[in-house]
Specification:
There is one protein chain. The protein is mostly helical and about 90 residues long. About 70% of the residues lie in helices and about 0% in strands.
Length: about 90
């Protein structure tokens, strides 16, 4: 009985939320966050390779590692934003 009263209080405090609304993050969004983390790790790996092999590399190879770092960080940021945003329910109700 106590649980029922708590539920009623929570419903009264949040009338704008619908019961049938989708969760804030969908499974594909969780997958995108995982890919973003992998992208960040790839950027760190490129940075470590750049520092570790710097004396043995020519300038074009070092430049490609630096470009890869920028690319992987950019991909990670975009995918993390897409994966963590609260997307609205865009389904058409019939």
């Amino acid at each position: 009985m106590e649980n029922a009263s708590i539920r009623e209080i929570l419903r009264q405090e949040q009338p704008h939320q619908r019961r049938d609304s989708l969760p804030t993050t969908r499974p594909i969004q969780k997958f995108l966050v995982a890919i973003a983390i992998i992208s960040y790790l790839a950027a760190v790996a490129c940075g470590v390779a750049l520092v570790f092999f710097d004396a043995k590399m020519t300038n074009p190879i070092a430049a490609s590692f630096m470009a890869s770092i920028v690319f992987f960080i950019g991909v990670g940021v975009v995918l993390q934003v897409i994966g963590t945003v609260n997307l609205p329910n865009l389904r058409v109700e019939r």
